[in-house]
Amino acid sequence: MSEDVPLLDDLMPWAVSGPRLGRTWVAGPDPVALRTRWAVLARAEGAERERLFRPTRLRSVTTGAAALPGQRSTSTAGFADAPGPCPDPVRVLHAPFDEQWLLPDQRLIDASRPQLWRVLDEHQVFTVETPAPGAGPGGLLVTRHLPAGPLGGIRPLHRRPGGAEPNLAPGLLPLLAERYGGPVAPQDVLCWILAAGRPGPRGHEVPLTTDPERWHAGLDLGRRLLAVQLRGVDGGEPPRLPGGRRPYVRSAIRAWPDGIDWDPETGTLSLGSGAVSPVPRSAWEYEVPGAPGGSGGAGAGTRVLQAWFAARCAHRDPGAEGLDALGPAEWPQAWTSELLALVTTLALLADLGPEREAFTPGPLLSRADLAAAGVVPPPHWSRRPASVLDHQEEGPGGQFALL
User: Tens digit of pLDDT for each residue in 16-69?
Assistant: First the structure.
């Protein structure tokens, strides 16, 4: 596309780098294992606690830190002095299409990005611009969970809790409403971005159509893409594959599976003695291009299902040490349910792929049109987080946080 096309950075100005955990053991696929890791670390003493903690320049067992917004039950003194009770693990997006759990204690996390925690609620949707262009539709992942892993830049849909103040260039919604003859909601813009946006050499490009019919066609496609990634929108039922294509557990996973494989003749996904079918080829072959750890060399992709399974077996790796080696002894039943949902998500995204690739926005709004409406360039304040404090936050050692 041409330089006349606006970028995602123009339309959703506020972006935040993803949290940097600093140590792998604070996140994982099993919340029970995270509580066990906390308990083991709290009981350890001296050099053993230091070894298990894995200190970095920013965090050690003696470093105090402010409580994360919304997590007031955690201690703010150094972990060695007052571990406090284990906080309830929270659901996060840890890798593309891989939802895991995180111990929400800022003393354990090198860079937690509190500004993201302040706007995290049931109304929020996070857009992640991944380094791997094919990690989601157009290289974008969307999630209601906090993105916390090596994913990429994060753009919240709302700048304040409660779905207030969209993270959109000022003037964009009125301009689009005037062009398309009806109200335009912030989520409509996100749906259009999912349908029409494309990675480009300048960044993620988002052409805006002048044609109301193309706009509504893009909204229809984008809403389906959004519903698949969020596994349901606004409390609705998660999208499902048609009856005959829905995956079912054909054989329960009882002993710990020694691997994951797919049979092209029967469409059966095997995990040790367990079996799930039917699993479409498109779900089995769904890749994240350029992901770290790809087996095919530079630029190669990693199959999502294989990466998901590997993450759940990481604690059993002979090289796993310390707290990373603590995990479930038996395959949790909840993981099988997650696997069925993941297969459905990947198959539906693969089904929508050709339609999305073929979608064209038609005649475009020019950058001059957007500039004339005051949409671009967005003002500097729109690139900074909003002031969302309606209460004082607890800082290190029980003092009030200075913000």
Answer: 999 999 999 999 999 999 999 999 999 999 999 999 999 999 999 999 999 999
Rounded Cα distance, 213 and 362, in Å: 9
128 membership: H or E segment, kind and range:
strand 126-129
Contacts of 21 (CB under 8 A, 6+ apart): 27, 102, 109, 110, 148, 149
Neighbours of 372 (CB within 10 A): 11
Q: Is the pTM of this model over 0.70?
A: yes
Nearest Cα neighbor of 315 from 60, 72, 51, 37 is 37
191, 223 Cβ separation under 8 angstroms: yes
CB atoms within 10 A of CB 357: 10
Compute the distance between CA of residue 121 and CA of residue 145 in angstroms, rounded to an integer.
Answer: 9
Separation of alpha carbons 271 and 40, rounded Å: 30
**b/e per residue 161-182 (b: at least 16 CB within 10 A):** bebebbbbbeebbebbeebbee
The region, left, alpha or beta by phi > 0 then psi within -120 to 50, assigned to residue 113 is left
The Cα–Cα gap between 229 and 223 comes to: 10
Q: What is the pLDDT of residues 171-220, one digit of tens each?
A: 999 999 999 999 999 999 999 999 999 998 899 999 999 999 999 999 99
Please report the pLDDT score of residue 301 as a whole number: 80
> DSSP character for 271?
E
CA atoms of 380 and 314, how far apart (whole Å): 43
